[in-house]
Structure formats: C-alpha cells, structure tokens
Amino acid sequence: MGNEEQKITQQDLQEQTVEEQELTERDYLEKLVKNSEKQLFYARVRTATSIVIAGILAVCALMIVPQVLRTVDNANEIMAQVSETIILADTAIESVTQMSTSITGMGDKMDTFITENAESVAEVMEKIEAIDFEGLNKAIKDLGAVVKPLADFFKKF
Hints:
Elements: H1 2-130, H2 133-155
C-alpha cells in the first residue's frame, strides 16, 4: 500500500498541480484583463485631458495672439518714430557743426580784418590828431568873410 498510496498521491499532486496552474493562468488572465481595462480607462482620461488642455491653449492663443500682434505693431511704429527722430537729431547736429565751423571761420576773418585795419585806423587817428582845428576854424572864418561879400553881390542879380 505504501507504493500505491505514493502513486495515488503523486497522481493527485499532478492533478492538483495542473488545476493550480490552470487557476493561476486564469487568475493571471483575469488580472491582465483588469489591468488592461485600467490602462484603457487611464488612457481615455489622458486623451480627454489632453484634448481639454489643447482646447484651452487654442482659446488662449486666440485671445493673446491679436494683443501680441497689436503690441508688436505699436512697437514697430514707435521704432519708426524713434528712427525719424534720430535722423532729425543727426541733421540738427550736422547743422550745428556747420554753423560752428562757419562762426569759427568768421571769427578768424574778423581777427584778420581787425589786425589788418588796425594799422590803417592808427594812421587815420594820427592824421586826425595832426589836424590843427584852430587853424582850420580860422581858415573857415576867413573863407566865410571872403565869400559873404560875393554872396551879397550875387544876391542882387
């Protein structure tokens, strides 16, 4: 009986092992199906979330892009005005530089003119000082005395 019991036990063990394997495989398959269902659910949740986020981003883009474009246009206009102002400032600086050069040239010419004419003015002043005004006054009175009788004579005609 010992051998027979062992054989029966071995057969029972083999049958039990086959049943356990089937149950284990079945359990694994059930777990796999449950896991797949969970993965499918979470994939759907991720997809829905992604769609909602994409929609929100699209709405935000539709609201923000026109404002950004307006801001960029305003910035371009301001840059154009700044460029014009810089051009005007450059022109003004060139004009001031030319005016400064002209004034400097005129000052040099005035210095030259004064220097050249200082000698002439000094000579004229010397000649004026050399004039005998008393003698000149006396000559004018003498001329007046001579011309008066002639004037009276011609008045009669």
